[in-house]
Design goal:
The complex is a heterodimer of chains A (about 475) and B (about 200). Chain A is α+β, with helices and mostly antiparallel strands. Chain A has helices at about 1-5, 40-45, 105-115, 295-315, 330-340, 385-400, 440-455, 460-465, and strands spanning about 15-20, 25-30, 30-35, 35-40, 50-55, 60-65, 70-75, 80, 85, 95, 100, 120, 125-130, 135-140, 145-150, 160-165, 165-170, 185, 190-200, 200-210, 215-220, 225-230, 240, 275-280, 315-320, 345-350, 355-360, 405-410, 425-430. A six-stranded mixed β-sheet of chain A has the order 25-24-26-29-27-28, sandwiched between helices. In chain A, strand 8 (about 80) and strand 9 form a beta hairpin. Chain B has about 200 residues and is of the alpha+beta class. Chain B has helices at about 5-40, 80-95, 125-130, 135-155, 185-195, and strands at about 50-60, 65-75, 110-115, 120-125, 160-165, 185. Chain B starts with a helix and ends with a helix. The relative contact order of chain B is 0.12. The chains are: A alpha+beta (about 475), B alpha+beta (about 200). The interface between A and B is medium-sized, with 32 and 31 residues.
């Protein structure tokens, strides 16, 4: 059980990440070092992009993505995809039933599955699927005060921060590619230089200056104007931001979710609060039949993986209670979550009725006579219930900010009753396109981002829980 | 040589005897059936006559995700247990109408309700009630809340309710709502009052 629990843990010790940009979804995956190479889980790479299933047969890891089959053998550098041999450039690995491939193989492997051109910027760990890149051009207006106009080919929503002599824009979700020159020098005493860099799944634009700078958004997020902070106000119709996060009016990046306002996550797992995400059902227990072919257990697993990325981005270490099609009893789920001692537990469900999302806290049964510090197994949640309710309210508030219908309920739903830490269940319901939205990575990502924001807003309270 | 008229006479008599035997057998079966029916005192339809009472039913509404209270005039027997059963059967009939706000299977039934002092009630549902219930947290919880709240408000003295299916314990109603414990009437009442927040 312990092995299963820690199978899905976000390995953030070295903080290596791979960002994947596509027209379907934008997401980030953990990268791990094995035998001197960087590896990533193949299931996690493909899961947001289509229907995928995988199974281990002895030394073979066999998978099916949409209509394409793949056969990988542990320790071998060659694999068979759609009936043809392919060189992975490094041995394939199976770890706890997860198929791991070298990051360097993605540029040849993914086009076989997706039929699209794939560009991998390996040193920066950024992967672009199809023609999705966002270009930037810079133009300095040397009038007084000087203004640097950054024009993007698609709306952007970077995290902006300042430090003496610099204004930094971090593009965590945008498929921003470098301009022709990585470094642009300006013959101006106030704004001297614009420097593009990219690493570890993000792109960064740094503007060097001799005085404090202010950035403002306009043109529906396609233009950022950088001016000296003490100078005249920004152009009409723009939203100023000084050393903070971008304006909420700015449209989301491709794939969906605005960059959040929480500070950058701490650098090591030791300082990260732990969250347990539990994709409900699994294995022989299919959950609700959302359509004739879509089972609740599959939707909850994909949703959980996206939530893992969003919570990870907010600085939480994350454990998935199942990261495959495994059968777990409710007592096993409760036991595993209690043993991991997380600051929060989130169970994910999906339903074909209603719309939006429903957030549940435990409806506790009546406890027997007072047993002092001891609580019955079915009422273990009692001490944590007030914090659970606060987090549920915060999540619903985040969803409502995004005009996403959501409500808080209480429900007699196991294993919520048996958990010692703040615990919630979230039921994803259809969106504007009906049940078809439920497996959509874009739809799920919007909800996952709101959940992560809501949880992050209660982080201090969660961390001070006994 | 037997005369022809004698043969015919014997044949006619045989036919008459046979017919009488068949008729007698039929008459005996009819008499037995009438006796059996007379001895069967089980109700075959809801009482439609007798004094009616105004009760409050808590009806689940899938569209809004809450329970709404609805007054109804239904004939109720005198005994507490029979009253409880008629109450929930009246509630179930609403859910089985074609325009139900929270559809339940046509084959769903309340088998029995047992009132156990002090303050406990056990609702025994039939298997199709659970087997054909739509699977979702909200849908299942609304059903549970509706049964518990309707019972608790109209039958005084109940403070906890257990739900069985076909006389046996079941882990969940349809994959979500936990049926393994007694429901606390106060907790359900609080959830019903607050609805979604």
């Amino acid at each position: 059980m312990a092995a299963l629990v820690f199978l899905g843990a976000s390995t953030a010790a070295d903080e290596k990440r791979l960002s994947i940009y596509s027209s379907v979804a934008t997401y980030t995956l953990p990268v791990t070092d094995r035998t001197g190479r960087e590896y990533v889980g193949l299931l996690e790479v493909l899961e947001p992009l289509g229907r995928i299933s995988a199974r281990v047969e002895g030394q073979h890891w066999k998978m099916r993505f949409n209509d394409s089959d793949g056969d990988f053998v542990t320790g071998r550098t060659r694999a068979k995809v759609r009936g043809r041999d392919l060189d992975l450039g490094g041995p394939f690995l199976i770890e706890h039933s997860r198929g791991m491939i070298p990051v360097s193989s993605l540029s040849t492997l993914l086009p076989r599955f997706l039929g699209n051109a794939v560009t991998v910027r390996e040193a920066a760990r950024r992967l672009f699927i199809g023609d999705i890149a966002t270009q930037v051009t810079a133009q300095l207006d040397s009038s007084t005060p000087p203004r640097l106009l950054l024009n993007f080919t698609a709306p952007v929503n970077p995290t902006i921060s300042t430090e003496p002599g610099k204004l930094k824009m971090i593009f965590a979700r945008e498929p921003l590619v470098p301009p022709a020159n990585m470094s642009l020098a300006f013959e101006n005493s106030t704004i001297n230089q614009a420097l593009f860099s990219e690493s570890n799944g993000t792109a960064e634009l740094t503007i060097a200056s001799s005085s404090p700078l202010m950035a403002s958004f306009s043109n529906n997020g396609r233009t950022i104007t950088v001016t000296a902070a003490s100078q005249a106000p920004p152009p009409a119709g723009s939203t100023p931001v000084v050393g903070e996060t971008p304006p909420s009016e700015a449209p989301p990046a491709v794939g969906g979710t605005p960059v959040t306002e929480t500070p950058a996550p701490p650098a090591s797992n030791a300082r990260r609060p732990l969250a347990v995400v539990d994709p409900a059902h699994g294995g022989s227990e299919r959950g609700a039949a959302l359509t004739e072919t879509l089972a609740e257990k599959n939707v909850t697993l994909g949703f959980a993986r996206l939530l893992r990325h969003e919570l990870d981005r907010q600085g939480f270490a994350v454990i998935l209670l199942r990261d495959g099609d495994d059968t777990l009893t409710l007592d096993q789920r409760a036991g595993a979550a209690n043993a991991a001692r997380p600051v929060i537990y989130i169970s994910l469900h999906a339903a074909s009725q209603g719309s939006g999302a429903r957030v549940y806290t435990a409806m506790l049964p009546r406890e027997g006579p007072d047993r002092g510090p001891f609580h019955a197994w079915n009422a273990a949640q009692t001490p944590a219930l007030p914090v659970s309710q606060s987090v549920a309210t915060a999540i619903v508030s985040e969803m409502q900010k995004r005009e996403f219908p959501a409500r808080v309920y209480s429900a007699s739903l196991r294993p919520l009753n048996n958990l010692l830490m703040p615990a919630l269940a979230i039921e994803l319901a259809p969106g504007p396109n009906g049940v078809a939205d439920l497996p959509s990575a874009n739809y799920q990502q919007k909800v996952a981002a709101a959940i992560a924001d809501g949880v992050a807003s209660q982080r201090q309270r969660l961390e001070t829980q006994p | 040589m037997i005369p022809r008229h004698l043969i015919l006479g014997v044949a006619v008599l045989l036919v008459i005897v046979l017919s009488m035997g068949i008729y007698l057998s039929h008459m005996r079966r009819s008499a037995e059936e009438m006796q059996r029916l007379a001895a069967d005192t089980r109700p075959i339809a809801a009482p439609t006559s007798g004094p009616t009472e105004t009760v409050t039913l808590y009806v689940a509404d899938d569209a809004t995700g809450v329970l709404r209270s609805q007054s109804a005039q239904i004939p109720l027997p005198g005994g507490r247990q029979q009253r409880a059963e008629e109450l929930l059967r009246a509630l179930l009939r609403i859910y089985q109408q074609s325009d139900s706000p929270h559809p339940l299977a046509p084959a769903a039934e309340i088998r029995s309700i047992y009132l156990i002092d002090p303050g406990a009630a056990v609702i025994d549902l039939n298997a199709p009630f659970a087997d054909q219930h739509r699977s979702s947290i909200l849908g299942e919880q609304l059903t549970v809340n509706s049964l518990v709240e309707t019972l608790a408000v109209n039958v005084p003295g109940i403070n906890r309710v257990r739900i069985l299916v076909d006389g046996s314990t079941r882990e969940t109603l349809a994959g979500h709502a936990d049926l393994s414990e007694f429901f606390d009437v106060n907790a359900v009442g609080q959830a019903v009052t607050q609805g979604g927040q």
